Amino acid sequence: MKLERLLSIIILLLNRRMVQAKELADRFEVSVRTIYRDIEAINGAGIPIVTYQGTNGGIGLAEGYRLDRNVMTNDELAAIVTALRSISTSYGNEQHVQLMEKINSVVPPAYFEEFQHKTSRVLIDYSPWDGNERLRPKLQLLKESVDRCLIVGFVYSSAKGEVSHRVVEPHTLILKGRQWYLQAYCLEKDQFRLFKLKRMKTLEITPGRTFIRRELPAHESVTGQSSSEPSPVTQIVLRFRADTRHFAEELFDIEELVAVGDGGWQVSKAYPEDEWLYSFILSLGHHAEVVEPLHLREIIASRAEQIAKIYRNDNTT
Q: Which domains are delineated in the chain?
């Protein structure tokens, strides 16, 4: 990911007087052109980097420059390590480990014990309970294609069950709602699209095909937004029985639960009405009942009846 690469370059230059661009490109498995773009970004952030020409030339920090507390404090370094540890639960690789080691190496010895305490107070685990071993090869391949601007192809199954072969320019990997997505420019649809990694099959880099990154349209500049029309939002009311309050508290904030006259509990929430919502409500089983709206109640009742027919071995329609 670009942020960790920039941080790694900065810390590397703090510890070495000069590094060649080719060495950095090889280390981070990107092109030399990408390294020079990174250098421009670091310069733009106020950290002066200079390039030295000639046989013994390379890239280095301006003479006398030091990354002091006005730029990055110990607490800020601790926040970076905490974020990296959390990201590594779902998107870990050797570069994360190396970067955390580098940051640890610049922490003053007198502060190290407190630093270790601060970096272990919070861990946000993004990984699913069943692991994500099948996703890791996809993530690694897409990370390489994003970094090197390589076109990829895959077979994609949409949420509607439509199967198609896609060829795309990978733009950004997005972790949203515990699911990984690829934001990419689809050459078939001629626009940016959001693809769920779990719906991809036979993912591969297209040999010899590269691309120049495109500007995201304004309406897609927010992380995770898609050009497709969003599902209409529906205000729903769910009722839980008195003896299933603990179940409701696992799903909703306790302050969202409102007591009702029969000893039960109700919660009112707005959700996009789509297949996910139907599946979510059905997953609540007998613990919850849709009170409003009426049309949603009828949809859930119909689907529950279809499920009941399957388990009764009743094939009548």
A: 2-119 (1.10.10), 135-220 (2.30.30), 233-311 (no CATH)
